[in-house]
Every structure is written in C-alpha cells, then in structure tokens.
Amino acid sequence: MIWLIGLLFILILLRIPIAFALTFVSILGILLTNPDLMINVPRNIFNGIESFTLVAVPLFILAGEIMTKGGMSRRLIDFSKTLVGPLPGGLAMVVVLASVFFAALTGTAIAAAAAIGGMMIPAMKKDGYDTRFSASLVATSSTIGPIIPPSIVLILYGVIASVSIGDLFIAGIIPGLLMGIGLMVYCYIVGKKYNYRSSDRRSTFKEILIGGKDAILALIMPIIIIGGIVSGVFTATESGVIAVVYALIIGMFVYREIKLKDIMPLLISTAKTTSAIVFLIGGASLFIWFLSYNQIPNQLIDLLGFVADNPILLLLIINIILLIAGTFIDTISAVSIFTPLLLPLVIQAGIDPIHFGIILAVNLTIGMVTPPLGVCLFVTSSIAKISVPKMFKFLLPQVAILIGILIIITYIPDITLFPVQFID
Q1: In angstroms, how far is the first alpha carbon of the chain from the final one?
Q2: Mean pLDDT, range 231-254, rounded to an integer
Q3: What pLDDT does 424 receive?
Q4: Mean pLDDT computed over 40-44
C-alpha cells in the first residue's frame, strides 16, 4: 500500500486539488484492501472537521482581514519607519520589521505580502531601490507570518498531531524573530553596498513615541493573545474570538476605517478561505485514518530504518524532502500530508513533536518563496509588475539566509523548546 503515497504525489503534480487527491487515494486504498470499510469514510471525514480547536482558523483569518482593512498595517509600517528608516537600507528593514509586527497580528504569509507589498514596494521604488530587490524582500519577509504566533499553520499542525497549540505558539516566537533578524542584517548590507538611505537624520525620541502611540493599539493585540494563552485565561481557540472582537473595536470605533458595509465582504472572503481549508482537513482526516489502519507509517519506518535511529541524518532528509515539497505544494496542504507521514518517524527518533512542528512550518513557508508554486512571489511580482525570474538575483541570497536559520533551528532544539519549558 505504500505505493499509494507515490500515486498521491503524481496526482498533485498533475494539478489535482490536494483535497480531492487525498480523498481519492484513501478511497482507492480502501477499495483495494477492504471495501467493507467504505462505511467509515463519511464518519472519518466528519470526525476530522469536528474539532473545537479548528474554530480558531476562520477566527484568525477574519481577524487578519479586519486588521488589514482597518488600517493597522499602515500604522505598523509608519512606526517601523521611525525605528529603522534612517539606517542604510532603512526602508528595506522597515519591510522586515513591519512583517514581524504583521505576523503577530494575522499569522498568514499571503496577507502580509499583499498588505505590506502594496504600500512598501511603490515607496521603495520612489526612494531609488531596485524593484527586484524590493519585490523579493517583501515575499521572503512575509514567510515570518506563519511562524510568529498566532499562526494558522501551527494551529493545523497542532490539531493533526494532537500537540498543544499554546506550546507551538510559544515555540515559534524565537525562530520567527531569527528569520527577521537575518533578513534585516542582509538589508543593512545591501543598503551599504548600493547606498540605499532614505534620510541621514535619525528619528527623535519624541517622534518614536508619537509613532508608537499611533501603533500601540495594534501592537497590544498579540500581547493580549499570547499572554492570555500562556496564563491560561483563555484557550488558543478563544483567543481567536478575542482577536476578532478587538480588531473590530479598534477598526470601527478607534481608527474608524471600517464601516458596517465593509463587514459582509470581510465575512464572505473569510468563508471562502475557510471552506477550502475545512474541505482539505476532511480529506486529510480520511487519509490519516487510512494510513494508520494499513500501518503505512510503520512501513515507512522500516523503509527508512537506516536513519530512524540517527536524528541528525533523519532531520537532514526530512528538511530536504520538505523544502522540495514546498516548491509545488501549498503550505496548508503540505501540513495535512506530511504530518501523519513523518510524525511517527520523528517520535521514534526521539525528536520532540513541538520542535518538529516548527521545523515543518519553517520549511514549508520557505516553499512559499521558491518556484514553481511560490505564491508569495506571484503576489509581490504582480504588485511590482515584474516577472518572478527577474527577482532571482536578490531572492537567492534571501532564501539562503532563511535556510541557514532553518538549519540552526533544526539542530539547536533549545531555540524552540527552552521558551516552552521555561513558561511551563
């Protein structure tokens, strides 16, 4: 039955929607092994989506939509300019810093690429920055979104792997910050080399305070969410409700950039995105049940037995597989496929599931800026009005930095696990 895994990837390469591919392979496997088990198909699909934790997904998607529409992203960018704008490569560093802030609000890469790219790419072009550099940087910076909490990718992994989402959120903070720091250092180097400098005057303390005051309401929200989860005041799912309510209050009554007429389009957009995710999770749930019933993970363990007892080599192979897979499978689909396949291997090798969850997330988000899929690249290329291949000169060193951070995260597990253990 392990050959069905190969069939799954053939269907994916043929551009069959992932949810359909997962369901088809599972049903085909059931028909070939024990057709009487077909009665379990609807039950397993329903069981996969009948999860209170999954309610957090549409809530955080909606919160992100509201925050983007409500002007929070613009205020975060303005605040970032007061902090690093005058430095060499300052506007580029603003992109990265704003992505870190934006990640703590929405947890999605595509939203960050669209929101920040729409404002920053024209501004950088006006300031003399190479458009290829600007577009590629916005794309790579957006990958921080699914790592720093709240993260939809980590929520899905937590549901599938039965791992604490609160612990995953805490574990993602330092890796996300490391990605941001690595890209900001690169921006500084490029700024020095090409003399990219917006102004020689540094922001005064008063200007920083004014910028911070304008953005403080946006910056407080992630503190409320993470603080509430860590202290046990509310669960990760309940934090999604807090995020939506908070974003609505700030967007409608404080910033006053959201009107009643804007609510319905936001709800419709959220519903469309959520329905696709729920359908995918249902197919993934059936696929997971089929794998377990036929002991396919055990077959994989036997097949990779030569590395199962060597965590260093196993993680290297897993990283290579995930980096390649991320180039042609979207992140959410890849989490649904690879979590049930690789988690048994990882656990047998003595690797912590929380550590593996962060490794998985970082790998797959890097895939969002690597062709041929590279969805964030296509978002920023459309904004910048240049082709994706033209970005490669600047994209390659940026991706290399992200892979370097990935290697550090992979082989120094305390980076992800120490904060969790410290708080626990």
Answers
A1: 41
A2: 82
A3: 64
A4: 81
> Which amino acid, residue 269?
S
* pLDDT one-digit tens code per residue, 329-383: 778 778 888 888 888 888 888 899 999 999 999 998 998 888 766 778 888 888 8
- Which amino acid is present at 127? D
User: Global pTM?
Assistant: 0.81
Q: Where are the domains of the chain?
A: 23-28+53-423
Whether the pLDDT of residue 325 is over 70: the answer is yes
3-state secondary structure the chain: CCHHHHHHHHHHHCCCCHHHHHHHHHHHHHHHHCHHHHHHHHHHHHHHHCCHHHHHHHHHHHHHHHHHHCCHHHHHHHHHHHHHCCCCCHHHHHHHHHHHHHHHHHCCHHHHHHHHHHHHHHHHHHCCCCHHHHHHHHHHHHCCCCCCCCCHHHHHHHHHHCCCHHHHHHHCHHHHHHHHHHHHHHHHHHHHHHCCCCCCCCCCHHHHHHHHHHHHHHHHHHHHHHHHHHHCCCCHHHHHHHHHHHHHHHHHHHCCCCCHHHHHHHHHHHHHHHHHHHHHHHHHHHHHHHHHHCCHHHHHHHHCHHHHCCHHHHHHHHHHHHHHHCCCCCHHHHHHHHHHHHHHHHHHCCCCHHHHHHHHHHHHHHHHHCCCCCHHHHHHHHHHCCCHHHHHHHHHHHHHHHHHHHHHHHHCCHHHHHHHHHHC
CA 115, CA 107: separation in Å to the nearest integer?
13
| pLDDT level of residue 247 (50, 70, 90 thresholds) | confident
Taking only the tens place, the pLDDT of each residue in 128-176 is 889 999 999 999 998 888 898 878 889 889 988 889 888 998 999 999 9
The answer to whether 41 and 30 have CB atoms below 8 angstroms apart is yes
